[in-house]
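Subject: Re: docking follow-up (nicotinamide-adenine-dinucleotide)

Dear J.,

Thanks for your patience while I sorted out the input files. As discussed at Tuesday's group meeting, I've set up the holo structure prediction with nicotinamide-adenine-dinucleotide included as the bound ligand rather than trying to dock it afterwards. The sequence and the ligand SMILES I used are pasted below, so you can double-check that they match what you have on your end before we go further.
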Amino acid sequence: MVGLAVLGCGRIGKLHARNVASHPRARLVKVFDVSSEAAAAVAGELGVQAAASVEEAIADPEVQGVLIASSTDTHVELIVAAVEAGKAVLCEKPIDLDLERAQACWRQIAPRRPRVMLGFNRRFDPSFRALAERLRSGEIGSPELLVITSRDPAPPPAQYLRRSGGLLRDMTIHDLDMARHLAGEIVEAHAAGANLVDPMIGALGDIDTCALTLRSRSGALVQITNSRHSAYGYDQRIEVFGARGMLLAGNQRQTSVELWSERHTAARDVVLHFFIERYRAAYAAEIDAFIAALESGAPMSPDFADGLAALELAQAAERSLATGQTVKLSAAR
Ligand SMILES: NC(=O)c1ccc[n+]([C@@H]2O[C@H](COP(=O)([O-])OP(=O)(O)OC[C@H]3O[C@@H](n4cnc5c(N)ncnc54)[C@H](O)[C@@H]3O)[C@@H](O)[C@H]2O)c1
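The structure tokens for the complex came back this morning:
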């Protein structure tokens, strides 16, 4: 059995803790949250111990891997603490809001040859994974155009948005990782953004709507569109158009029942509400991949370098937004 600790028992930490607790080859040893109520609720539900401190959770000799699911601004210090204690890490995205801080974190931990996996869960979604595998197997030839659509059902509260780092680092970062995963290294980014959903978001200095165009080293073009709202639920689609056809992974619904009437044809359920429902299988597969890598010693993927590359892309998109210019990435040099 692989012993794991979960740090942060909020929306995503709770989900990870449940997935670890129900995994047949893992044991959830300890959970920790700076909010003792949040930690106690998860510990009580899953019948595990709530640690009194981060140090206690990480130092437990039964803990081999640490899942970091706390607020983004705590990731770097927790990664360093876990790695220095000799533990493997699965850290939620993004590594940090600041690329230089994330790079400094890597310089600090790299001499220990750490095993760090990043929580880009979409790579583990069964449909997106099948799409990626079929693309790599050459079914549609070389990719030429990719369209990644990601729209949340509704904006998060102002309290979350204030610490989120903005749409591009908080939300688009998943799509930027998928763009790299499917199209290879990105060499150029152009971003357009708008505040169309909620004036409160604009007042916080953020955007809630964006359209990005990326160019990959292979020459493929990627379009990403994001919105903080979607009237019909969590809109998550990927289309890859290539020399010999197209691969398309569409939205998922609660049921496949269709209504045909005098007013509708093929009317179906709204799409699954949000990430907890839509990526249920992906989160479980992500935890399984982390556990399997811990057992086998195989490299972890996506890794810290993937986290840095996605953050660099988010930063480039922000620069493009501010200047109106197309921005070249370090992969272009
Ligand atoms: N991969 C995904 O699909 C996905 C989805 C949601 C959130 N996230 C990421 O997960 C992280 C958490 O997001 P969330 O939505 O669960 O937020 P949340 O606010 O619901 O939960 C964060 C929790 O971390 C706790 N916390 C803060 N500092 C801590 C510390 N030093 N040690 C331990 N716990 C601490 C808070 O008390 C809170 O309970 C963020 O980095 C976010 O970007 C990823």
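A couple of observations from a first look. The radius of gyration is 20 Å. Residues 7-13, 32-35, 38, 54, 69-72, 74, 92-93, 119, 121, 275 surround nicotinamide-adenine-dinucleotide (CB under 6 Å).

Let me know if you'd like me to rerun anything.

Best regards,
T.
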